[in-house]
Specification:
Blueprint (H helix, E strand, L loop, with lengths): L9 H22 L2 H31 L7 E3 L4 E3 L10 E4 L2 E2 L3 H8 L6 E6 L2 E6 L11 E5 L9 E5 L4
Antiparallel strand pairs: 1-2, 1-3, 3-4, 5-6, 6-7, 7-8
């Protein structure tokens, strides 16, 4: 009787393993940048938190009639007129109905932990980066918040995640 043997030879198996290895080495770098993708996602989350908080405060400013005020204060419950050039300690400065570009204000409204986020403020612009992040010359990993310069203008919030 003739035996019918079915199966793969050792050479065939080795060739398949070599081909799979080549494919894995080629495709792996595209899938292994999980930390960069995670940082980009957290930046998008920060942007969303800032947008939500800004909208909430703007709504409260409209209720209080302070949406056109160059400076008002948010005490956590309502927007009130500022009694001087600054808000009391613990309150958030509000410019034309939106949070001011100040580290304390943005930390408070978006609930950004100081242990996780650095906030650098220059004039009316705040740059938010992960703690310990060192930017390179051509790539950045940051959220930029620019407070409105006049009434009826929304703040500019942008994410730059090329260097994450």
């Amino acid at each position: 009787m003739k035996r019918n043997q079915a199966g793969f030879t050792l050479i065939e198996l080795i060739i398949v393993i070599v081909i799979l290895g080549i494919l894995a080495v080629t495709a792996a770098p595209k899938f292994l940048d999980f930390s960069g993708d995670a940082r980009k996602s957290t930046l998008t989350g920060v942007k969303g938190a800032l947008e939500s908080a800004s909208s909430l405060i703007y709504g409260k400013a409209i209720i209080a009639g302070q949406q056109s005020a160059a400076l008002s204060c948010f005490d956590g419950a309502a927007v009130v007129a500022a009694s001087s050039d600054t808000c009391p300690t613990g309150n958030t400065d509000v410019v034309y109905g939106y949070p001011a570009a100040e580290a304390a204000s943005l930390r408070a409204v978006a609930e950004l932990a100081a242990a996780e986020w650095d906030i650098d403020v220059t004039g009316t612009e705040a740059t938010i980066t992960p703690v310990g992040y060192v930017p390179s010359d051509d790539e950045v990993c940051e959220v930029t918040y620019v407070e409105p310069e006049s009434a009826n203008v929304k703040p500019e919030i942008t994410v730059s995640g090329d260097g994450c």
